[in-house]
Design brief:
alpha+beta, Outer membrane efflux proteins (OEP), 61% helix
Length: 466
């Protein structure tokens, strides 16, 4: 009899082996190196490279209290709980039961009935279906962890950019105030010359327009400063207006160019790429489970029970039951085969998405390097242009006072000088934003964020000073 069952066992064994999927290869070809690199290693806490203590405090505060990041951590906990729940199916389950019943019959024929019992069940994972589903949920938990770490990196980058924008707008306001004073001084000179007939009324009106434009620029800058302060308050998990931000600070100098390494290291370091890879692994295990679901399932049920009319005899009459259940799919209208094809297509989709994510990551590094290089050249060019604009304005102003040129030429030179200085500040901030983008593109996991503090918000005062 055992020899007759051998062909069936052999077929089922070969079918089980067919659930093993081939190893996935890298869907894209990686370049050997990036276009530019430095010598400074990239730290996970890359924002400290700017040597700005206020920025360090803001980022640390945001990583502790930002509500969106805390929500991402709760999603991680959910994914881990789901993985543990699925893992429990790998082991037998054991339940205990007890009951007490009183039966009342005619002619005072009342009776008591007591029962206790234990029941256990276990699915023998012949084809690895339960194991594959368990591994799929474990990979999805890794996806949630990578998503949490990527969110932390994104948040630190958003804090850094917003802080630098705030510093730039404050510097723009200070510059606008100095330019307003300069324009008012020039206006007094022109009005004096107009009083003695050396300047026309049009010159006075043009300069008054410039003074009014300078005052309006201060109002616009103040509004932008208020918006950025509100953004920072929300990013650190507080209501706008309830966080006292530091008033001091200036745009930092650009740190040395970090070591970009090689693209193969980037693929292994970035959390979003790890997330895409774990999604491939999860889809691969789901495919294996879908294939295994086409084969028979075998489970074992064991129960041990005792029943008596008196509590004293309850534990003396035991009944043991052992059952084996074999469920074999026969006709399902192609449902399981369709699920296998869907799982195959999903895995291939994840592979393509991973390849696209790798290409995008390399592009982000190269884009940041290109923008920073061009902005560095632009800052050098702006410095030269500002020197020339200062010299031009001084010469034209002296010639105007001597009556050699018209005021239009002086006004154009003054506006050009002031515009260049504003552009220089904006370009410095853009250069810092490009460096932040480069750090974010190269950053790895922030391991210190595995578990945020639970009582941090309770200890913060309503107007917490940074």
């Amino acid at each position: 009899m055992s020899y007759r069952l051998f062909p069936l066992i052999l077929v089922l064994f070969l079918a089980a082996c067919s659930t093993r999927q081939p190893v996935l290869n890298q869907p894209t070809t990686l370049p050997d190196s990036f276009s530019e690199t430095g010598q400074q290693p990239v730290s996970d806490t890359w924002w400290k490279s700017f040597d700005d203590r206020h920025l360090n405090q803001l980022v640390r505060r945001a990583l502790d209290d930002n509500l969106s990041l805390q929500a991402a951590y709760q999603r991680l906990l959910q994914a881990r709980a789901v993985a543990r729940r699925q893992e429990a199916l790998l082991y037998p389950s054991l339940d205990a039961t007890s009951s007490a019943e009183r039966q009342e019959g005619p002619d005072n024929t009342d009776a008591n009935l007591f029962s206790v019992g234990l029941s256990a069940s276990y699915e023998v994972d012949l084809w690895g279906r339960v194991q594959s589903l368990t591994e799929a949920d474990q990979f999805r938990a890794s996806v949630s962890l990578a998503d949490y770490q990527a969110a932390a990196i994104s948040l630190s980058g958003e804090i850094s950019n917003t802080w630098f924008q705030l510093l730039e707008q404050r510097a723009q306001r200070d510059l606008a105030q100095r330019q307003l004073e300069t324009n008012r001084t020039v206006l007094k000179v022109i009005e004096t010359r107009f009083g003695v007939g050396l300047s026309s009324s049009a010159d006075v009106l043009r300069q008054r327009q410039l003074v009014a434009a300078s005052a309006d620029r201060i109002n616009e800058t103040n509004a932008q400063i208020g918006v950025l302060e509100n953004q920072l308050a929300v990013l650190v998990g507080q209501s706008p207006g309830r966080v006292q931000l530091p008033d001091d600070g200036a745009l930092p100098t650009l740190p040395e160019l970090p070591e970009t390494g090689i693209p193969a290291e980037l693929v292994q370091r970035r959390p979003d790429l790890q997330q895409a890879w774990w999604l491939i692994q999860a889809a691969d295990r789901e495919l294996a489970a879908a294939i295994s679901n086409r084969f028979p399932r075998f489970s074992i049920d064991v129960s041990l029970s005792s029943q008596s009319r008196g509590s004293g005899d309850l534990f003396y009459n035991w009944l043991l039951a052992l059952a084996g259940n074999l469920v074999m799919p026969v006709v399902d209208g192609g449902e399981r085969r369709a699920e296998v094809r869907r799982s195959q297509a999903l895995r291939e989709e994840r592979v393509r998405e991973y390849g696209q994510a790798v290409l995008t990551a390399i592009q982000e590094v190269e884009d940041a390097l290109t923008r920073e290089q061009e902005q560095r050249r632009r800052l050098e060019n702006l410095a030269t242009r500002i020197q020339l604009a200062d010299a031009t304005y001084r010469q034209l102003r002296n010639r105007y006072l001597n009556g050699a040129v018209s005021y239009i030429e002086v006004l154009d030179a003054l506006q050009e000088q002031q515009n260049l200085r504003r552009t220089q500040l904006a370009t410095r901030q853009q250069s810092l934003s490009s460096r932040v983008a480069l750090y974010r593109a190269l950053a790895g996991s922030i391991e210190t964020l595995e578990q945020p503090s639970n009582n941090q918000n309770a200890t913060n005062s309503e107007n917490d000073s940074l």
